Amino acid sequence: MCTSQHLSGLGLGTGKKARLYRILYQHGLRNGTALFLPYDQGLEHGPRDFFANPDAGDPRYILRLARQGTFNGIAIQIGLAEKFYWDFAGEVPLILKLNGKTDIPSDADALSPLHATVADAVRLGADAVGYTLYVGTPAQETDFTQYRRVRDDAQRFGMPLIVWAYPRGSAIEAKGGKDSFYAVDYAARVASELGADVVKVNFPHPEKRTAVKQQYDADFSSQQAIDAVVRSANRTLLLVSGGERAGDDAMLEKARQSMEAGATGLIFGRNVWQREYAESLRFAARLQEILTKYPRE
Amino acid sequence: MCTSQHLSGLGLGTGKKARLYRILYQHGLRNGTALFLPYDQGLEHGPRDFFANPDAGDPRYILRLARQGTFNGIAIQIGLAEKFYWDFAGEVPLILKLNGKTDIPSDADALSPLHATVADAVRLGADAVGYTLYVGTPAQETDFTQYRRVRDDAQRFGMPLIVWAYPRGSAIEAKGGKDSFYAVDYAARVASELGADVVKVNFPHPEKRTAVKQQYDADFSSQQAIDAVVRSANRTLLLVSGGERAGDDAMLEKARQSMEAGATGLIFGRNVWQREYAESLRFAARLQEILTKYPRE
Amino acid sequence: MCTSQHLSGLGLGTGKKARLYRILYQHGLRNGTALFLPYDQGLEHGPRDFFANPDAGDPRYILRLARQGTFNGIAIQIGLAEKFYWDFAGEVPLILKLNGKTDIPSDADALSPLHATVADAVRLGADAVGYTLYVGTPAQETDFTQYRRVRDDAQRFGMPLIVWAYPRGSAIEAKGGKDSFYAVDYAARVASELGADVVKVNFPHPEKRTAVKQQYDADFSSQQAIDAVVRSANRTLLLVSGGERAGDDAMLEKARQSMEAGATGLIFGRNVWQREYAESLRFAARLQEILTKYPRE
Amino acid sequence: MCTSQHLSGLGLGTGKKARLYRILYQHGLRNGTALFLPYDQGLEHGPRDFFANPDAGDPRYILRLARQGTFNGIAIQIGLAEKFYWDFAGEVPLILKLNGKTDIPSDADALSPLHATVADAVRLGADAVGYTLYVGTPAQETDFTQYRRVRDDAQRFGMPLIVWAYPRGSAIEAKGGKDSFYAVDYAARVASELGADVVKVNFPHPEKRTAVKQQYDADFSSQQAIDAVVRSANRTLLLVSGGERAGDDAMLEKARQSMEAGATGLIFGRNVWQREYAESLRFAARLQEILTKYPRE
Amino acid sequence: MCTSQHLSGLGLGTGKKARLYRILYQHGLRNGTALFLPYDQGLEHGPRDFFANPDAGDPRYILRLARQGTFNGIAIQIGLAEKFYWDFAGEVPLILKLNGKTDIPSDADALSPLHATVADAVRLGADAVGYTLYVGTPAQETDFTQYRRVRDDAQRFGMPLIVWAYPRGSAIEAKGGKDSFYAVDYAARVASELGADVVKVNFPHPEKRTAVKQQYDADFSSQQAIDAVVRSANRTLLLVSGGERAGDDAMLEKARQSMEAGATGLIFGRNVWQREYAESLRFAARLQEILTKYPRE
Fold it and tell me: What is the value of pTM for the model shown?
């Protein structure tokens, strides 16, 4: 009857467990997997991401999509949460994204500044907070410092912390790039070492081997790579992000391999809403078909 | 599709709306009504309340009952929440009771001291907090002072505030007693005036007229009385409490009249768990049968 | 009768709604549109801006103009607010500009430091605060950090927050410049994502296409551009700023297109007061004639 | 191999679990039971308690006794901890008693004021803190208020909280007295409801029935009474205190019944040290013989 | 009888003494020496360190190893401590590592940012905290500043402070490198001067003499070097770290010389767990054989 067996083994305090239970077992497929809708691209990339489907520029449209598509949560910035979440409060879990940046300046010293606090998330009834950590950035000192406060608040308030663990910055570019197996694997581990409850990573590319550390300079299949990444995250639940829109079959295969590896779920934005509404729902349903096969109980 | 129409008209901020939505539309009958299980009698009256059904002394037994009986929430003190809620985190909504007292000293100057904070409730993943306000007590200055801080924190954290509005103290005893129509009606209004999101009252007894204010010294049916009490509470949702165990038929009629009057739900403890487990579930089911007839959408 | 229908759909808390109601429905044309008088050029550009009409260097003169021209508000820095607003307190709404800078150093790493707080605005009876956010500046980390505190205070005090969303800095210069459609559209969205209640933008120039993101490298009319910008701002009310003095007819056409697109109003300074008093009033009246045609009810 | 099975089922956070593990499995019999040496009588009763064995007035003597007798911990006030514990730091666990009072004024409104904080306990390397709660005292408001801060700090620092749950005050005296089954049972439950990790109670006297609540006015054996008290404490570990010196056989029988009922251990002071050193050790050994038979694993 | 003679001569406050006593005399060989298991490589180097023995990527495996191998403590970051230590709480002492970094950006200005606080360590029941100080880094101002707060908190909470004293940064590289006798000796002294209770150093290499200060540009045996380093640390207990995996015999000789010099113990990670489980235990046992010969009493 109780479906939280899985959550009980993760070393979570009461509030984090309660909130993750809600997200994973009282929304979406209610089977311990998750399909999240990220919607912070308006800040990260600007409105250009909405040109493919102008309706998607309207936060209300996206929230309706999240509800109708029975997503497990929607990740948005404070401004949209303040002005749009009230209409849907409680119907779809809110993941308040706490930091973010524009892509206008260079990414060499990438850093994502805070715009909101865990206390804001509590006030708005959010069930989790999101933080972008740029693993390997030369600005890691500032990044880790502002992250520490977020982690501490999240612990104090019992709020699940989802880390967008993104390899980024000039040093990463010089060592295989941001989606090499080496970089993604390291990023997943960093999130786990630093106390993320959930980590969001890009799907690893084992074929990107130029200048990566020697251990990664070998033949790995993508299944082997994502298996290793899930292991590196250990008790930190893992989400695979969709990234830029790509072919549907490729995305579905990525999704399948991720779930096979033990991921908790998917966080797909542009691949979902950069198409017409009914099409978005259909694609979400296909992703959920995959999640159905991997209950986490 | 969206069932929160009702909540949208109550003047709630985002977090309170999200949390009440969870309680009222994602638990129990999911129709905007509520059946809560209060379990603070171990503190308020001592273990003697468990003699009728010794199993009920075990908080785990009660939490299991709340889950299996699909209650909309369970109201417990901080000690039990810290040690027992983890096992059920998220499965049944937690209402953290913030104050309480023993019944050993006299009730003449009744005051219920704080044992926990709204921040504790946030940390434990609670969906509401409970505060006992002794309306009319000679100690009302201290009571209101500590209440003010709770209300302020609840507002700041977006946490629904349920006020146990209990007429109490020597002055009340001299004016008709704690469950006269006069006293209950006044208590419901006080909760509403002071910012409760939900108020818990005893069922009013219009026949208790000795020394009540003149306006209440007339013939009112109990339906008229509870109608008036619900009106006095206005946008503050109203729960009727069961009180001491009494005959089932009387309780069910009380419940029916309350829902007819526009109450949001019931909060019945001893009447539920002072009997054997299967009997408790059966009685809860009969209460829910009534709630089914009064969806709040 | 109640004209705040429009405000009710914006996701505002009580205090912000009350103050915006005052600005939009109890001042100016009282029809939900706004004509603001910005007067922070003495800090931003220095007294050179007053050479065209030396009287305009006197804050008292400008406040009188704002009152007589029935502007919806005047935006000034703390120093002028402290010394001049008392005489007009309540007669014309005060928008306290919280940050600002000189134009003496280079704009490559543009950042506008704070000079005042939301608490100052409360103390002075202001109905809104203004913050200049340099979207895309390499100093975005510091900018976002000080902005976060302002947003948080504005939320806590129920004070409407108007963001001067200005693309600025070396990266913007390299990508089409500060008033390209791409830059203005992105800026409007950033303000909305980060919680501005009102955003002030420059009128977009779709013909500035050098090095802008691909989606903007196409033929757009200026009407199409401003339509898109208003949509990007979604529930954040949008003001179009006048910028440097230009031909009246061009300005009026800009104003008309903006209102047609759904903007809430205009914030014109130099175009208003860089001429003789009676002329200023006449020009303001012509702008208001346009606003009359676009009531927001 | 892992002996903490028992502790794992109590709903404890990491720090509290670590510290209780040390006390229960790395000291004394290392079998999950506990024998504590309380030594706060110098404050509570004055030096008169040392007349039977003047050596016992020397804290160093008592600490040596605690170490040589392999007690699981010693409970002392801040003054003795500051000046004497350094010599034995880590060798015998320290329970810092945070409040206390003299027995000079009347006990009618009994209240035990704070002398030290949980932060002091952390600084001194203590493994637990002790707090005397006078259950039923007319001063319960003040008592609960200062207790709340202690509980909150203990939670925040991961410090086990041992509550001396003592029925006391005029109302208790009027309802059967402080060691009636009714009073002790209620006290154990109050400690559990309010978040004690461990509760120290007097052995209940079911034969004291004058004016107790009706449910307790029946024939109970002392075994039945202590069984009920342990159940009332549920996940709060229970210690039985020795109280005034009494006959050894009576004490040992009390100890045996307590352990049989499921208590975690004993906290015996005067019965231990109000006799000559070697005799004290011998009596402690007899108590430990009993504890050996009730491993909690 | 009392084995803390050694600790009594170190000028420690009560809490630090109690906690070091636990580590040194109630765990491991219980003779005042220490064998620690460091496990922060997942953050410092990434998962590549686990390729030699993939099981070692699982924190639970490592904690089990620490317990079964009777290590005196395990050093981990906050994330692993939060999620994995509860299962082993109190069974093996926790050293919470407070700072750390990835090895992706350059080490020229090495700085290890804080991720956790001494208060976190208290809350988790840790017996010590670890801080990496990059002796000689150009970023030493920031390093010393954040270190100062840690030292201050450690003093206030009575928490032993273990400093990873690592010569690092461009200036060190230009003066003999990070494990020259010169650099290690200086690092040990810096830790002692700045208030470390325990210092962790690399084994000094007196043969690395290029560009070192003149006094170190002479023939020293490695025994002379480590003797000097222990003397430089004076009352700060000294641990020698294993570093990268090397030949077992070389490591054992290093260990022997260190203990001969007066070190308190060893902190060996990769040399222990980069091999199969039973092998790891066997190697740990060989290290403990050495420690047995150097009791510190």
Answer: 0.96
**By the 8 A CB rule, do C232 and C191 touch?**
no
- Subunits touching E (CB < 8 Å, at least 3 pairs)? A, D
List of chain D residues whose C-beta atoms are within 8 Å of the C-beta of residue B87: 11
Interface chains of chain B (3 or more CB pairs under 8 Å) = A, D
- pLDDT of C110-129, one tens digit each? 999 999 999 999 999 999 99
Q: What is the percent of chain A where pLDDT is above 90?
A: 93
Q: Which of E83, E91, E43 is nearest to E60 (CA)?
A: E83
Dump the DSSP string for chain A: ----HHHHTS---HHHHHHHHHHHHSSTTSSS-EEEEE--HHHHT-GGGGTTSGGGG-HHHHHHHHHHTT-SEEEE-HHHHHHHGGGGTTTS-EEEE-B---SSS-STT----B---HHHHHHTT-SEEEEEEEET-TTHHHHHHHHHHHHHHHHHHT--EEEEEEE-SHHHHHTT-TTBHHHHHHHHHHHHHTT-SEEEEEPPBTT--TT--GGGSS---HHHHHHHHHHHHTTSEEEEE--S---HHHHHHHHHHHHHHT--EEE-SHHHHSS-HHHHHHHHHHHHHHHHTS---
Specify the pLDDT at position A246: 84
Size of interface D-E (CB pairs under 8 A): 103
Picking from B102, B111, B131, B270 by the largest number of D CB atoms within 10 A of its own CB, the best residue to mutate is: B102
Q: Does B51 touch chain D (CB under 8 A)?
A: yes
Q: Which residues pair with B166 in a beta bridge?
A: B134
> Residue B84: which of D11, D137, D182 has the nearest Cβ?
D11
Which residues in chain A are contacts of C20 at CB distance < 8 A?
A: none
What is B120-184 written as a DSSP string?
A: HHHHTT-SEEEEEEEET-TTHHHHHHHHHHHHHHHHHHT--EEEEEEE-SHHHHTTT-TTBHHHH
Beta carbons of B24 and B7 less than 8 angstroms apart: yes
Question: How high is the pLDDT of residue C4?
Answer: 54
- The residues of C annotated with a catalytic role in the active site are 166, 200
D180, D229 contact by CB (below 8 A): no
CB of B10 within 8 Å of any CB in chain A?
no
Best residue of A44, A88, A102 to probe chain C, by most C CBs closer than 10 Å:
A102
pLDDT by residue for chain A (297 residues), tens only, comes to: 344 578 999 999 999 999 999 999 999 999 999 999 999 999 999 999 999 999 999 999 999 999 999 999 999 999 999 999 999 999 999 999 999 999 999 988 999 999 999 999 999 999 999 999 999 999 989 999 999 999 999 999 999 999 999 999 999 999 889 999 999 999 999 999 999 999 999 999 999 999 999 999 999 999 999 999 999 999 999 999 988 888 999 999 999 999 999 999 999 999 999 999 999 999 999 999 999 999 998
Q: How far is A45 from chain C (nearest CA, A)?
A: 8
Please answer yes or no on whether A18 and B94 come within 8 Å at the CB atom. yes
Question: D18 CB near a chain E CB, below 8 Å?
Answer: yes
Cβ distance of E104 and A175 shorter than 8 Å = yes
Q: Three-state SS for C58?
A: coil
Mutation choice for C interface testing from A60, A84, A104 by most C CBs within 10 A: A104
Does residue E120 contact residue E78 with C-beta atoms inside 8 Å?
A: yes
Q: For residue C10, which residues of chain A lie inside 8 Å, CB to CB?
A: 83
Note the pLDDT tens digit of each residue in B234-292.
Answer: 999 999 998 888 899 999 999 999 999 999 999 999 999 999 999 999 999 999 999 99
Answer whether E135's CB lies under 8 Å from E30's CB. Answer: no
Active-site residue list of E: 166, 200
Q: What is the average pLDDT value for chain A, to the nearest integer?
A: 95
